[in-house]
Amino acid sequence: MAARWVVLAAVMLVWQAWANWRQSSFFPPPSAIVAQMHQLWFSGPASHLWLTSSAIGNVLPSLGRIGGGLAVAVAVGGPLGIAIGRSSAVSGYLDPLLNFGRSLPTVALVTVFLVVFKLGDQMEVAFIAFGTVWPILVNTIDGARSVDPLQAETARVFRLSAGQRLTRLVVPATLPKFFAGLRLSVSLSLVLMVIAELTGSTSGIGYQMNSASQSFNLPVLWGGIVLLGILGYAMNAAVLGLEHYVLTWHRGARRFTN
Fold first, then answer.
1. Is residue 175 part of a domain?
2. In which domain, by residue range, is 93 found?
3. How many Å apart are CA 204 and CA 202, to the nearest integer?
4. What does R_g of the chain's alpha carbons equal in angstroms?
5. Which residues have CB under 8 Å from 172's CB, separation 6+?
6. Is 230 domain-assigned?
7. What is the CATH number for 90?
8. Run of H or E including 94
9. DSSP line for 183-228
């Protein structure tokens, strides 16, 4: 862990030295970017957790849209993936439709979502949900199909009910693949959030970055990019922590079998 931070610090020092030497308006030094981020988002009063009005009006709405979109994607992709993965008949009928749907470039459909939902949070959440549901859905289907046939037959021999087979066999077998899809969706949600907010939103990180680019305020633009990277790292770490907690049994089972 220390070595990773040393590498990051070295890269920042090189960037700082290069930017001071080149004096490029397109690549401001990290010190200027951090100072701009602090002033813009994290210099508020302690009563507001040091968040400024800009952070409350732009960063928090973006996080809310990401959370709403991912919640819809999980609520739809998880149960639907298990249902499709456990039924060969349903899977056979829906596979062409699923392959077609996940092949559609979500970015190209942003105008369709604008027409259907109009401008606003509803459109942005729906756009994020549509784009992030596919990794969750496809991986959950794959996980549900990977249930050990011998274990499934044993469950039938012991006459476990359908609900017991679902909770004790199917869901545990599906969870590793589900979390793999969720990690992909978390990273994708940041990209889709920015795209949705660039199309006409009146708040959010993407909106603020768009305004900064139009006014040629490069430190604010780079500050938005750095903030997105930090948010992506934090969200991925949170999912990995949840996966580590939920799948403790899975790692133990793999060590036992190995």
1. yes
2. 58-252
3. 7
4. 22
5. 249, 250
6. yes
7. 1.10.3720.10
8. helix 88-103
9. HHHHHHHHHHHHHHHHTT-SSSHHHHHHHHHHTT-HHHHHHHHHHH
- For the segment 193-227, what is each residue's pLDDT rounded down to a tens digit? 999 888 867 888 888 888 888 888 888 889 989 99
Is 21 part of a structural domain of the chain? no
What HEC string does 111-133 produce? Answer: HHHHHHHCCCHHHHHHHHHHHHH
Alpha carbons within 13 A on the beta-carbon side of 12: 12
Whether 252 has a pLDDT exceeding 70, the answer reads no
Rounded distance, CA 208 to CA 107, Å?
19
**Count of CB atoms situated within 10 Å of the CB of 113:** 21
d(CA 209, CA 221): 5
User: In angstroms, what CA-CA distances link 45 with 49, 50, 52, 118, 121?
Assistant: 7, 5, 7, 35, 27
Determine whether 191 is exposed, middle or buried from the number of CB atoms within 10 Å of its CB (0-12, 13-18, 19+). Answer: middle
**What tens digit of pLDDT does each residue of 111-159 get?**
888 888 888 888 899 999 999 999 999 999 988 888 777 777 777 767 7
